[in-house]
Each structure stands twice: as C-alpha cells, then as structure tokens.
Amino acid sequence: MKIYHLKSFSLYLLTLLFASSLWGQTLRNLSYSQRSGTKLIDIQYDLVLASGSAAKIDFFFSFDNGKTYPIPCVSLSGDVGPYVVAGTKKKAVWNVGKDWDQKYTNQGRIKVRSSIAEKIEAIEFAVASIPFRASNIQESPSWFIGEFYRDPFGDARMNGFPLSPPTKFFADQYEVTNHQWNQVVDWARNNGYDLQSVSYMPGEENLPRTNVAMKEVIKWLNARSEMEGKTPVFYVDPIEFGWDYNNDGKLSAGPDSLWLTPGEQDVSSPSFDWSIIANIDQSQKEKWIQEGWIYFDTNSNRQWDSGEPFVDRNRDGKFEPQEFPDINGNGRRDMGQTIVCRTGDISAWYQNYVPANANDLNMLGWVLEMHVKESANGYRLPQGQPMGYLGWRQDSFRYLAMGGRTEQGSYQTWEDWTQSGTMDPITFEYKQPMKTGIRYVEEWPWGAQSPDNMADISEYAVTPYGVNEVSGIQPVGGRKPNGYGLHDMIGNVAELTMDWYIEPYINPNPSMGMMPMSNAVGGSFSKLHIEVYDPYGNQISPRSVMSSGQSVPAAGSREVGFRAIRIEF
C-alpha cells in the first residue's frame, strides 16, 4: 500500500495551491483546485495499472500541516472508492463543507491512499413488489394507468388487453447492468436469439448498460422472460386492429381509403390529381381547394355511406377499402401475436419510409405497442406518458418514481405559463396564467421539495447539479432508494420507455429514411431537465423531473439505459 502527501493549501477564503507530481506506477499527474465560491475541491489524476487490475482510492485531510489526518474524505463523488479502473484524467469532487465545515486553514494537506482492489461483486437481479392503487386525482400517474387499461383503444379488449388495471408491479430495483445484460445474453444465444454480449473493463460490472438499441432491449426482455419461465411480451406478428368503414360485416384489404397519403394530400396544389377522388361535384371541389382539405365523412357518422367521397386508387368507382393496418405487409389481418420476437427488429417496420406509399393505418405500425401482448406476465419497459400518434397514455414511470407517497391535488406549481389563453398540453383547455407541469403534489423520497432545491440531492441521485457533481455514469445502487426500494429513479442514466415510434413528419425525405425515436425519463448524470416537443415541433412544458422525455436515437446513447418491470393483472 502506498501513501502520498500533497502540498499544503488554503481553504475557502484563499486560493487552493496547485500540485502536480509523478509517482511510481500507480497514481500520476494529480492536480486539485478549490471551486470558486464553494466548499468543493475538484481533484484530477491518472491511474496506471496492470491489465485487468483496479485500485481502491481513498483521501484523508489534515488541517495541522500533516501532523495528523483525522478527517476521512467521505463526501466524495466520481472516480473514488473500492474499485477504480485505470485511465487518464480521472475526476473526483470532495465536499469539504460536509466533512470538515470550518471556515479557514492555511495548513491543509490531503493524503491519498491507493491499494490493489479486491474483485468487485456483481449485483444480481433484485425485483421489488409494488402494489397498484389507482388515485381518483385526474391526470395523476396512477389515474392514467387505471384509465389506460380499462379501454385503451376502444376495441382493444378483444386483442389481448386486460379488462382491468394492474394489481401489482414487479420492478427492477436497479437499472440493468453490464453484468446482468450478459447473464441473459449467455442464455439467449443458446435459445434462438441473435443478441450480443457487451464488452466492459474489470470494475464496470455494475455500471448501467448503455448505448443499446431499442430493438436489442426488446429481445433481451423476451429472453429474460423465457429464461425465468414467464410469457414473453413482444411478438413479430402484430395485432392489426380493424375498422369496418363500409359496414359490410367484414374487413377488406382493398386499395381504397378515406384519407390521402402524405404525397397525395396537397389538394390546394394546381397539380393535384382529382381523378383519384370519387363522388365529388364541382362545388365540393372548389370548397376543398379553397380550404386545402377534403371532407370524406360528409355526414359525420364515422363510417362511409354510399355516395360519399373516397380515394379511388384503382379508379373503378367502387369503394374497396383497406380496413386494417397491414403492418408487416403480408396482405392479411393478423390477430395472433404468436411468434415470439427472438431475432430481427420489430421496433419499426418502416425503416425505409416512402411518403407516396404511406397511409394513416400503416402509421399505427410505427408504434411498438402493436407488437405487445399486454396480458403477458413477462418483462417490459415502463410507460412514460408520451405525446405521440396515439396521444396521452399511462405514466407508470412516474407512478414508480413516487416512492409510495400519496398523490394529492392537481395543478401544483413548477413551470410558470405566463401567457393568457395558453393551451394546457394534457387537457387541451385554454387557461389563464397559471402554474403547471406537476399535476399533483410530487412526493419524492425526501418529501415534496423539488430536486432542483435539494442541497443534498447527491444522496439520492446522480445529477448534473448539487454538491457532488460527477463526470459520468456511476455503479447502480450507490444512492438512497425511493419508497418502493428502487434506486437511481432520478439521474445516473435516463431510462428507455415503451414510447417508441417512427414519426413520418420529422424526416419525410425518402433518401434519408425514417427517424426512430424513444422517450427516456428520469434524466441522466449530465442533463436532468429536458425540453419536450410534440411530433409537430411544438414545445410542451416538462411535466416533472421524473417524466421529462428526450428523443433517443435508434442506436442508443451513452446517457440512456433501461429498467425492466413486470405487471400482474
């Protein structure tokens, strides 16, 4: 074991002296400085070790010029602790104010102790059992969950959806780690899955699994379900909902429709091909050209009636509609969800989107839920109350983040909408100047205080603010859990949700392909507050720290991981 002494420095009111030394084979190029106006010491060093080794790094403080070192540096964050791997520019932050809250010394020294670390124990799966109780507070998380499962799509009960809200959640206590990922992949590769393991350095077993694509997460969740003898959630053959537009008692797969594709819909253009529209007269045509929109359901009874207009793509004068979304292009309506997703990609069927070939029915295929068997008992991702093609849905992530506290009230303060007549993003009602964003009293593990105002937020979360800032993701479970026993529900890595879709309006250029996106919630170590936009580019006020969403690219992100849950009905 080696012990290193640093040159003296002054704390708080004077400038911290700079030291840089080169020592042996282990700790090199150490530097440190006091953050201006704070009681924080920023430390940086290089760690040189043999391949596969790691070091235990501790710091101690002396206020008597090195005669004694009575103050262990406990309030540390960053590259410190029992298992630090080799690398350059390792960073740590010491909160002097918490460990030695004196005003001043000019005889301070820091002692750095490094030793070869013992092998770290990998954290295994740990699942919390969380009972579900629906609140009667409208727009609260549990209220959304209850409403979603009662009747999410009108006829969805006939297609594998449960008839009632869940009775219990089984949520991972930790974000899925590198070790846990490989543990499932080892089983999956021998059971028909095309998953790949992740490479990581010794000591990174308990870091969250990041830079992972949604298509891989889906298969991993199925593999974990099957490995534990549970029913998988995700299937290759989707549920394709149907609408009997012509009321003939069957669902047709014809070429016609009651809508125009994105490439057809500019009816105000002089080049618009009116021969494709059946059953119109000149007065209707002139009105539609002026308004830029065609009214197919002229009597507003939500079905096609003889004599009403329709898009007659084969120009035979007969209404032969496509009355279901042929998501997988097999020419028939799929009812089953029978083929478990073990290979390939069901996160989006339309990677090569061409506007002229699209229609609103097929747009439903860009929502992953079309491949989800809701009544299954396998693992999935939580919902995050997205703003997408199907509108607002359940918000199980916020419910899990609440930590067992009681939801109470609505329209509480956080985001200030200052313009009169602002449209509320959830109810679509126009409100006078009001505070919105949190729709109920947000109860965190420590109470109702916003995380923004928590001086000791680092006790609960890995965040980009607070006294112990970090330079990257941290091992799971290093902070206090919420009331359900779930760790890292704020910060560390943002977590993927089931709100995965491909939005055609964002990138309609066929040569560029589509833009798959997902919502991630909870924020990451570098960015907690995230601006939220609807699919048309309109900014939506962030709803709360725990349910703020960000778009995640298809290939994943270094700041985004995931957490698995199961639902019992």
Model description:
With 569 residues, this protein is α+β, with helices and mostly antiparallel strands. The chain has 3 domains: 2-116, Immunoglobulin-like (Sandwich); 128-215 and 373-568, Alpha-Beta Complex (paralog of FGE (formylglycine-generating enzyme)), CATH 3.90.1580; 244-323, no CATH class. Helix content is 10%, strand content 20%. It has helices spanning 96-99, 141-150, 178-188, 214-227, 282-291, 360-363, 396-401, and strands spanning 2-5, 27-34, 40-47, 54-62, 71-72, 76-78, 81-85, 87-95, 109-116, 127-131, 168-172, 277-278, 310-311, 412-417, 422-423, 430-431, 434-438, 494-502, 516-521, 532-533, 539-540, 550-551, 560-561, 565-568. The strands form 8 sheets. Strands 1, 4, 5, 7 and 9 form a 5-stranded antiparallel sheet that branches. A 4-stranded antiparallel sheet has the order 2-3-8-6. It has a 4-stranded mixed sheet with strand order 22-19-18-23, with no helix packed on it. A hairpin with a 5-residue loop joins strand 2 and strand 3. Helix 3 (178-188) packs across helix 4 (214-227). The chain is elongated, with a radius of gyration of 28 Å. Residues 1-24, 154-159, 387-391, 410-420, 432-440, 504-514, 530-536 and 538-544 have low confidence and may be disordered.
